[in-house]
Amino acid sequence: MPETPIATTGRVAVVTGAGRGIGAAVAARLAADGHAVAVIDLREQDTEQTVDAIRAAGGEALGVGADVSDAAAVEQAVSRIAAELGAPTILVNNAGILRDNLLFKMSETDWDAVMGVHLRGAFLMSREVQAHQVKEEWGRIINLSSTSALGNRGQANYAAAKAGIQGFTKTLAIELGRYNVTVNAIAPGFIQTDMTRATAERVGVPFEDFVAHAAKEIPVRRAGNPEDIAAAASFFAREEASFVSGQVLYVAGGPKA
Ligand SMILES: NC(=O)c1ccc[n+]([C@@H]2O[C@H](COP(=O)([O-])OP(=O)(O)OC[C@H]3O[C@@H](n4cnc5c(N)ncnc54)[C@H](O)[C@@H]3O)[C@@H](O)[C@H]2O)c1
């Protein structure tokens, strides 16, 4: 019988877009699991709330301001994290934006912005962090996809990016597996955050009604919370998840794939 794996402690995790929403919950959960967590968001001050909450709970956190779509900023951020916390070996590519519109009204700027944050951002962050993972011969990359990857009206840019994340995940799993690095994706359904709040505003529906309407369509009859996604990220980051790689886990209160 193989021995039970040792509890997860002592790794350095990086979570992008962790100033609020799903990223903040993932950062808090990984800190509670015993990891030191680098909290990345656009500006360092955007990370303060998450960092303070982790520290107040007895965890270790570092706030770093960086635009994940900017190669120089990513390089600087990861080297600062390595210097201040140690070699980062857990990466959660969570930073994201929406620029929804029907195809005929979608601007090139909105297309490029979404590709830039989701795809280029995940690429740049993963390329930077894998150098540490390969050296340490251990790593976890967890990418945020979405049920929108299966198609969603008004989201040609976002759906393409989130489907792209799935191909990116499977390819990195193949390339990095030999270094003991697993790469998986989480595809959330409807999660209550500022992102879905902004969508409700855009379509002119009070958020509570928007959530209630979404919940009716979800088999478990509720909308998701950031903590639902954090639980899945916690699983993928574990030592004992080392044989799970290249997978897309739909966390959507029902089957979506
Ligand atoms: N909320 C949902 O229902 C839902 C569903 C499926 C997938 N997702 C995905 O989960 C992730 C988190 O979503 P959320 O709902 O918490 O969103 P959110 O808008 O509440 O938070 C996103 C965070 O990312 C940060 N960010 C944006 N661009 C950035 C950049 N270039 N560099 C660094 N940080 C940047 C923002 O400042 C913000 O703090 C996103 O990838 C999103 O696409 C969300």
Radius of gyration: 18 Å
Give the CA-CA distance, first to last residue. Answer: 35 Å
Provide a count of the helices. Answer: 8
Molecules bound to protein: nicotinamide-adenine-dinucleotide
Proportion of residues in extended strands: 5-15%
CATH architecture: 3-Layer(aba) Sandwich
Biggest sheet character: 7 strands, parallel
Q: Percent range for helical residues?
A: 40-55%
Q: What would you note in describing this structure?
A:
With 257 residues, this protein is of the alpha/beta class. The protein has a single domain (12-189, 224-251), classed as NAD(P)-binding Rossmann-like Domain (Rossmann fold). The protein is built from 8 helices and 7 strands. The protein has helices at residues 21-32, 48-56, 71-84, 108-136, 156-176, 194-203, 207-217, 226-237, and strands at 12-16, 36-41, 61-65, 90-93, 139-144, 181-188, 248-251. Strands 3-2-1-4-5-6-7 form a 7-stranded parallel β-sheet, sandwiched between helices. Helix 2 (48-56) links the parallel strand 2 and strand 3. The longest helix has 29 residues, at 108-136. Bound molecules: nicotinamide-adenine-dinucleotide (NAD). This is SDR family oxidoreductase. It holds the Pfam family adh_short_C2. Residues 11-189 form the Ketoreductase domain. Belongs to the short-chain dehydrogenases/reductases (SDR) family. GO terms for molecular function: oxidoreductase activity.
